[in-house]
Structure formats: structure tokens, C-alpha cells
Amino acid sequence: MKQKLTKYFYTFILPVIFIFLFLTYHFYMLWTQGPDNPREFLITSYSPQVLSRDGKLLWVGLNEKDKWCLPVNIDKVSPNLIHATIALEDQHFWDHHGVDFLAICRAIIQNSLSLQVVSGASTITMQVIKQYYRNNEDPIPDSVYRKYYFKLLQIVQSLRLERYATKKEILQAYLNNVSYGANLVGVESASHRYFGKSAEMLSINESALLAGIPKAPEKYRPDKNLSQSLQRIRFVLKRMNEEGYIDKERFAEVVKSRVDVSYFPFPAYCKHWAEAQEQLWEEKKTIQTFLDYDIQVQIEDLLKKKVQQWAPEIAIASAMVVDIPSGEILARVGGISQRPRIPVSYLDFCSVPRSPGSALKPFLYCMAMEKGLLFPEEVLYDSDFDVGNYTPKNFDEIFHGFIDATTALRYSLNIPAVILMQRTGTLPFIDKLEKSGLNLLKYNPGIFKSGLGVALGNCEVNMENMMQAYFCLANEGLFKRIRYFDDGQEEVSVQVFDRGTVSVLYKMLENKLVGEVSKDSVRLSRSPIRICWKTGTSSGRRDAWAFVFNKHYLVGVWMGNPQSTGSAKLVGALTAYPTACDIFRLLPEKKDYEFPDFPNEDVRPVEVCSLSGLPANPYCKSKKTVYVSKNVPLSRICDVHYYDMYTAQVKERFPSQSKNWDLAKIGVISNAGDVQETKLPLKIISPSDGSKFIFSSNANQNSIRLRTSRDSSHKIYWYVDDRFIGESSYEQPLWWYLTVGKHKIHCLDTTGDNDTVYVDVKLPDVIMKIADADK
After folding, report:
1. In this predicted structure, which of 17-26, 231-240, 673-682 has the lowest mean pLDDT?
2. I need a surface site. Which of 98, 332, 335, 340 has the fewest CB within 10 A?
3. Do 706 and 747 touch, CB atoms closer than 8 A?
């Protein structure tokens, strides 16, 4: 008996134990061969994508493996596709625990009888495991032994995965990782490519087509092998009927229906911005922006039409839209090209620096007004102007003479802008622009050499920086970052421009959209939109800019050519401004007021001279009231009208040239409103003391103008060598004709103050030598 038990043990029990231990060991090895966390099997290498504020797809790029892979939640997949996939790939998916052992037995029998592989037994869970190793570049085994070993690995890891993930998560991972031909990965990518829609909107036929592709992706690609793909649809629909997902009547109906397949490009509505976010894509694959899908699409379509309309003179157009209350960027079009096959330009012209033309002038006017160096209706002089070799001219090369500041800004005149730049100074202006978000030093290292030309766009800026600066103006002088998405950074607000001055600037720039009727006319749909606007045209007509804003929105448009080629149509007011107005009309209407209240608590009334537009002095006869910021210093008063003590009359006077033009004199207005003039010491300015002159053979060059520090306010009496030669005033200068020798020049004004200088006039050296030789 004992011998029988021993023999039984060695014959049966021990081999069983050995086999059990052998299988357990290998099962353990297969179990631990997968990732530490089984949920890693569910990870998908998604493509980077940009979503609109309401979750719509704006742009998608290739993933690390240069494949299109759009993620989709299983709840956002059409039930038709889920039913088709399960009916075809794994009809017992909802019942098994990762492995369908009945299917394995069936496959073994069928393959054995046929002596070839005619049936598979892979479940959807097993295919998820296979996709994981394929995506991680683990080679698919070639030898028979390794194939069976890999199949065992799939089985074990499937059992493991089912313990840590739900059926819906596994099915979602399968649909997001399976190949659908070419470089399409995932059902959402395939749905967008072949049907131009989301997987949520797929019909039964479309679902059957996609469900049939993974069996042999290249064979059943509808864009390459449509006939085989259509045959595959019939097979899938038959399986759906057999599994009870559709009845015979429905099967007979859909099998005859047509499937429309085409090639749909993936969305690329904010291509330039998205492709520049390389660092951001390393942190996350999906960015939900503040961009508005409808606005973005409409603007791109509009710019395409505009560029085609003005081709070939204009080849590229770009635009941006910002919501003023929030600072959120609603649209950004980096560049639309005239080429139909490549409608999006290669360069991002929202970030490429270009010359702004006159688009910087509102900032200059605002800065001058808040410092008290300009008043809204102050009269400037648009005439010949030169500083050394710098002789600016207006765009139309026409001078307009006396013109008030508001009109000069609206007409975008250059000479008045240069006059204001003289008053404010170039460096303070550059510093002010930097605080508003426009850093001129970034693209213009030699900006300080541009001098007065900065006011006329003698520099380079890009659209994004210009939009940031204009947003500061539109936001009533308050700087905030304009944002594409919520980056979690703390918002910082800084009052860069005086609030009251910006309110005045709003009134100066107010206009209506191109094509709008007047505000007094009757409209059926809505009231005319009140907007502020400014255009810019660079030198040589290479760039056309337009900025349109109110308290609701800011729209910026740039048009030009990539090679900076000039064109007669590249004028801001001619092309960019009408385009910006068309964009503004596309924006959703808001109910709150679109302009700052005016007058408001930030401004105060000031009585100004009707002729000069400056705070009136006691001699100004005609006066009117204008509003200025309550913080503006009233240190400049009208100097056009003055009292002539010799005639006992009030007279008018104006400077004779635009250079250093200023109709004011520096004075102080007391709280009571009385004018208190600041008395300047009398000093001879020309000629200066100790000057030496060479007597010229040309008589026209032997005269100099006599000038003092009180020319603008007093009559001056002149003496040369104690001999009275005449008198001068603001309107009537006095010229002295040189005579050889040393001279004493003395002046006296109506207050009794006087000053004296000494000058020396000599003959040229050649004449002196001839005279000495004669002696």
C-alpha cells in the first residue's frame, strides 16, 4: 500500500505540483511584467489642442509620434459607434473579466482545423494592452513562441487591468488609442478627418465604417480604398443585427443608405499662437482659452475675403479682438494669405514687428494733456517744420495752417504731433508707452536716436504689444494684462494714464463705424455704435493699421505684404479701418453703456479763449467752456491776446513759424481764477554776449535778428553803440545789419529793465591779408 501511494505521488501528485508551481511562477512573472500602476494602460499620447471658451476645438497639432490623436470621453461618443465596435470586436465585453475563455477555445478549435489563423480571441481589454506596448515602442514578436508568449502577457495583464478600471474606462482607452489608418489615432481624430464632425454626431453607417477600420487600417481606409470600406460597412451592420443592436428592418434601411466620406482638415483657427506655445505643451496637452469660436471663425473668413478683394496689392492681414471689461482675448488671427491653397500665412504677423505709422499719436496727445501741455481745443500750427536735417511732412503733403488739437488728432497730422513731442520729450514718451505695455526698446535698440520721429512711427512694434497699449487706453488708462487663458497668475492693475484725461481723449476720438447712419436717424435694429478709432500708415505705404475701441471691445487690424512691399492701397483709413469696423459689427452686443460718462467726476470745466483754445487771460474777449481732467495743472494760459499800453488796446499776436509753437506763456492760475504772470528777467538771447561774426561779401547774410527773453510779452527798444536803432515786438521782429568792428548792443523794455552784450564783427582772413599787403 505504501509503495502504491509513493508511486501515485511521484506519478501524479508531484507533476501536478510542479506544473502548478511552473504556471504560478510564469503567471507571476507575466503579472509583474506590466507597469506598476495598471491604470497606465489607459494613458493616451494625445495631440496638443486649443479649445475655445465654450469647449469647441480651435486647433490641433501632431503628438510626439507625429500622429493626430484627439481625446474623447466615452460619454461623448455616439452609441451607434459603441454598439458597432462591441458587436464586431468583443460581443461579450460587458460580461467577461478581461478574457473571453469561450472565444479562446473557439479560436483554438477553428485554427487547429484550418491549420491557419482564421479566428481571433482578443478582447477589447487585451487590445488595450497591445496598444500600450505598441505605443511604447515595444516590438511586436515575430516568432511563434514569442507571439504566444505575448498573447499570454495580454491575457494576464487584461485580468489585472480589469481589477483597477471600469468597463467604460477600458472602452474609452481603446477608442482613443486604436489606429484608423494613415497617422490617425483614436475615433475622434478619424471622425473629424473623414466626416468633419465629432464622434458624438456619427450616424449608424458612419459608425459602422469607423468600427470596421481597425481590423486592417490601411486596407479599409475610406479615403484610399472606398469600395472595400463600403463592403466592410455591410459586414459590420450584419454583426450589429446579429447581436441585436439593430433589427432587420433597420438593417435593410441603413445598408442601402449612402455614406459621404471626404478629407476634412483639422481646425487651425489660431495656428500661429498655438504653435508658439512649445513650453506650454510640455505642461499640458489641452488649453481652454478665452477665444470665442464663432468670432474667431468669422474674422478669419472676413479677412480671407478682404485679402482676396485687394490682391495682389495686399497679401497678408492679421487681427485681434479683446474684451475690455475682462481683458480676455476673444480672437487672434496671426495672418491670412491671398493664396487659396495656403490660406494661413507662415509668419505670425501679430508678433512680427512693423512700423506703426500714426497709430502712436493718441498716446502722445493723452500724455501731453495729462501734463497740462495741451488742451483739447488748443490751436496748433500745421506748417513747414524743420529741426536740423529733420523736416517732417503730412501724409497728404498739404499744410492746414491753424488747427485745433482734436481735429489735428482726427486728421492724424504730423506737424502738430512733432510739436507735442517737443513739449513732452521723447524719453518720457517712450517710458509712458512701456508702462502701458508697449516696449519700444525690445525691437528698436536705437530708439533714442529716432528723436521726434517716434511720434510718427519711426520705430517698430507688433500687434500684440499695440493691443496691450490700446487696451490700457480703452480701459480708461488702467493697465491690466490681456490674456489668452487663465494662467493662474495674480492680476495687477496700474493706473498709467490719468482717468479724466482718457475721458477727454474718448471724446476727441469719437466716431461711428464706417457705413453707420448718424445718431439722430432712425434704425430698425439698433442704435449706432459709438467708437473711438485711430489708423496708421507707415512710410512708403508698407503697413496699414487700424484700432477701434469703446468700453466693450478693442479691435486691431494690420494689413501689408511679407516682403514689406509698398502699395497704394496700404492706407490705414482706406483698408484697415473699414475692415476693423466690419469686425466690430460681428461682436455680440452688450447692454451697458459703451462710452465713459461725460462730464464725470474726473473732469472739471475750464474757461478757454475761443481763439487759442487755452485757458483765457483777462484780455480774451470771446470765451467758451471745455472739460479737462481735474488733475491737470493749469499752468499755461492764452498769450494771443495782450494789452498794449501805448495804444491802450487789446491786440492779438501769433508766432511766425511752427517750430516750438506755443500760444501760451508760463503763468499760474490762482484758486480764485486770477492770472498771475511769472516775470522773467530781461536777457538778450540773440546775439549772445561775446559773439564773433565774419562780415560776408553777400549783403543778404550780414543781418541778425535781435531777440530777448521778453519778446512775447513786452515791446523792446534797441541801441547799438548807444545809438537808438529801433523797437521790436512779438509780431514785428527787428534785424540789425552788421558793420565791421566791436559793438555794444543794449536793450530796454517798457518796465525799465535792461540788458547789454558785446559783439565783434571781422572781415574774412583773405581780405585782411590783402589790406595788410597794401600797407
Report:
1. 673-682
2. 340
3. yes
User: Cα angle vertex 598, ends 594, 601, to 5°?
Assistant: 120
- Between CA 454 and CA 51 the distance in angstroms is 39
**Bridge partners, 627 (sequence order):** 605
Q: How far apart are CA 572 and CA 541, in angstroms?
A: 9
Mean local confidence (pLDDT), 707-726: 87
Q: How far apart are CA 318 and CA 421, in angstroms?
A: 30
Confidence of residue 289 (pLDDT cuts 50, 70, 90): very high
SS3 673: coil
| Strand runs labelled E in 170-279 | 184-185
CB atoms within 10 A of CB 131: 20
Distance CA 493, CA 406 (A): 29
Contact by Cβ (8 Å): 473, 506: no
Q: How confident is the model at residue 499 (pLDDT cuts 50, 70, 90)?
A: very high
List own/partner pairs for 405-409 with CB under 8 A and 24 or more apart: 405/365, 405/374, 405/375, 405/376, 405/377, 405/378, 405/379, 405/380, 405/508, 405/613, 406/376, 406/377, 406/508, 408/380, 408/382, 409/361, 409/362, 409/365, 409/508, 409/509
pLDDT digits (tens, 9 = 90+) for 165-224: 999 999 999 999 999 988 999 999 999 999 999 999 999 999 999 999 998 999 999 988
Q: Where are the beta strands (DSSP E) in 514-622?
A: 530-537, 543-549, 553-560, 603-609
Label the pairing between strands 57-60 and 49-51. Answer: antiparallel
What is the mean pLDDT of the segment spanning 479-503?
93
* Residue 738 grid coordinates: 552788421
Which CA distances in Å does 470 have to 482, 533, 651?
A: 11, 10, 43
List Cα–Cα distances, 269 to 59, 262, 294, in angstroms. Answer: 6, 20, 11
Query: Is residue 362 within 8 Å of residue 505, measured between CB atoms?
Result: yes
Around Cβ 569, how many Cβ atoms within 10 Å? 15
State whether residue 272 is helix, strand or coil.
Answer: helix
- Contact yes or no for 571/559 (Cβ under 8 A): no
Q: pTM for the whole thing?
A: 0.77
The answer for residues whose C-beta is within 8 angstroms of residue 698's C-beta and 6 or more apart is none
> Strands 68-69 and 184-185, how do they pair?
parallel
Is a pLDDT exceeding 90 seen at residue 463? Answer: yes
Beta strands in 678-729 (DSSP E): 684-686, 692-694, 703-708, 716-720, 723-728
Residue 148 has pLDDT above 90, yes or no: no
pLDDT at residue 336 in the model: 85
Contact 159, 98 (CB under 8 A): yes
